[in-house]
Amino acid sequence: MTKLDLPEQPRILVITLRRLGDVLLTTPLIRTLKRGWAGSSVTVLVFRGTEGMLAGNPDVDEVLATSERPRPAETAALVRRLWRGYDLAVSTQAGDRPTFLGLIAARRRVGLVPRAGQTGAWWKRYAHHIPVAAEPDCHRVTQLLGLASALGLQQAPDIVCPQGGTAEEFTPCTPYAVVHPSPFYRYKRWTDEGWRALARGLSERGLALVATEGRDPAEQAYVDGLWGPTDPGVTRVRGRLDWASLSALLKGAAIYIGPDTSMTHLAAASGCPTIAIFGPTSPRLIGPWPPGGLAEPWDHAGTIQRRANVWVLQNPLPCLPCEKLGCEGHLDSYSRCLDELPVRLVLSAVDQALGTGNRSPALAKPGSMHAT
């Protein structure tokens, strides 16, 4: 398919009204658009609070932010701001709101739409000059790059991490591991006992420990209770680093371990050896995306899967992946697949990623043990 006939130096709007990790996963599409139209300016519309994932991004000229649940006055102001201000609108979601905003913003539109027969499919197909049906069984980045292919653009598969930050205050002088124990939702959380045993195992392997967490008081209280005076010392970030600085911290780490969350996506994209602990969700759809992309899709379920610098760990029960909100079906539910995931499996992946077996990496320089 050939590219749309756009003016020279076109104004492009990318609409991605999702959470932090989804904004990060949109950056390969943004880079593809920027490179595909020389001299273009790219504006990205996101939810307020997710702008940090685009910090320092050289492909983004402007970021607009809106509330997840805006009042009528805010919606009216956004409509006036967007009205026919762009030559191309790219909607990365098939929902009503992003489709409508794309419709009012630009003279030419491309976007994801529901598959034929699904609710709302008919009008959304007419709303876009190029409607692209969302593939149900592929990675989110692959879905988004499908929009680029529909525009006739050569895909740029790399995620662009936030840039321009520093983490020197929290960076140990010796090789270190970064752990992120608390996901946004409880049903994606591993066990307290698992994190304690993992900390001991990492310390025995000669690694200092840095724990990342957000500013939410409940999240910090959870991490407060994880490690006591008899456990290895852990440097706590306590929400004091922005996303660009977290990216810098991860790039210098010997290894990262975390659950299915935005920090894990950032770690994988940074090139750091990344251990991703997955529960009910399928890595095929939303697994970490390594630099250069996935040469082979993630399997829906497995024990230890590796792609480039990323290892995905699961406890492959017969029900996995259920794609449900844990075993009780709500955000604060437990997940049996995670509750029964043994620490020995995580440490086995750690040893693979470090390439050390049981040998201590203490004499290596920080950042020198990246997987090949």
Provide tags for this entry.
seven-stranded mixed beta sheet, Rossmann fold, single chain, globular, 372 residues, alpha/beta
Structure in words:
The protein is an alpha/beta fold and 372 residues long. The chain folds into two domains: 11-150, Glycogen Phosphorylase B (Rossmann fold), CATH 3.40.50.2000; 168-354, Rossmann fold, CATH 3.40.50.2000. The protein has helices at 20-25, 27-36, 72-82, 96-105, 121-127, 140-150, 192-204, 217-224, 243-251, 262-270, 283-286, 336-339, 343-354; strands at 11-15, 41-47, 62-66, 86-91, 106-113, 130-133, 176-179, 208-211, 234-236, 255-259, 274-277, 304-307, 310-313.
* Poorly predicted ranges: 357-372
Radius of gyration: 21 Å
> How many distinct beta strands?
13
> What's the domain count?
2
User: What oligomeric state do these chains adopt?
Assistant: single chain
Instruction: Provide the CATH top-level class of the largest domain.
Output: Alpha Beta
CATH topology of the largest domain: Rossmann fold
Helices, by number, come to 13
Question: Tell me about the biggest sheet?
Answer: 7 strands, mixed
Helix content: 25-40%
Name the structural class: alpha/beta
Explain briefly what this protein structure is.
This protein has 372 residues and is α/β, with parallel strands linked by helices. The chain has helices spanning 20-25, 27-36, 72-82, 96-105, 121-127, 140-150, 192-204, 217-224, 243-251, 262-270, 283-286, 336-339, 343-354, and strands spanning 11-15, 41-47, 62-66, 86-91, 106-113, 130-133, 176-179, 208-211, 234-236, 255-259, 274-277, 304-307, 310-313. It folds into two domains: 11-150, Glycogen Phosphorylase B (Rossmann fold); 168-354, Glycogen Phosphorylase B (Rossmann fold), CATH 3.40.50.
